[in-house]
Amino acid sequence: MVFGSYITAMVMEVPRLPRTGETLTGHHFRQTHGGKGGNMAVQAARLGAEVIFAGVIGRDASGDAFLAALADEGIAAHAVRRSDTAPTGTGFIVVDESGRNMIVIDPAANLEFTPANDFERLRPLFAGCGAALAQCEIPLATALEGLATAKAAGARTILNPAPACDLTAFDLSAIDYLTPNETEARVCLGLDPAAPVTEEQLAAGLLELGVGAVIFTRGERGALLIARDRRVEQAAFPVEVCDTVGAGDSFNASFATAIAEGCDEIQALRFACAAASLSTTRRDTLASYHLRSEVDAL
Question: Domains of the chain (ranges plus CATH)?
């Protein structure tokens, strides 16, 4: 089960990322599907997982398009609610020639996805859930309560803390795996995003909040899992990078899929790094997500 956001993505390519106050001429504008929740659900489905997406969208053309995309991917949509008061979320993305990106989002209807509004209807869906995956483009209370409910039902739980927020005031013991990059990890601990802190120190602070394990996503350097009693490192796979947008979502969905299938952490990290590496070889998000056969081959 993916608790998450759906955001219509407006994408434009630029020669380089703009500086503050600068206007650049871009090209290849397109509108596509986005949002970390929607991305993760599609990647998991393409890897063979049976996926339920839970979230809130608007009663608009963008929401219609998302429901059609879920149907095309074989993803269960009966946990999706349509808002009568807010539009579907929207994001603006610029991507430079080396694949780096800048993103701004308006969550819109995603912010109406709350325990009070939605959990009575969702509670029966947790039975038999192997893994639950949430992100922070929905209200944090929703993500945390959803993962706690899933864990109580026997699922393995994963929180991707993006966009990052300070988590130091929360009990995170319902989270089996927290998956930040280094900058996000600092923000989660209430630190300056550029603070000179090692991964080991960051992990120690996050483990103190109750997390079972921290997985640092490191881009071209792969991933690093740190828990109280173990450390597992996995290199990225060498590929020709075209676009890094959505690679982190691919990693999280792939790791969740492998864990739900019963893989151990070493296998799951390797599988996730393979899927995420492949996703950087194509542009955009959903278009970049590969099938199970392609990930297994790599």
Answer: 2-14+30-288 (3.40.1190.20)
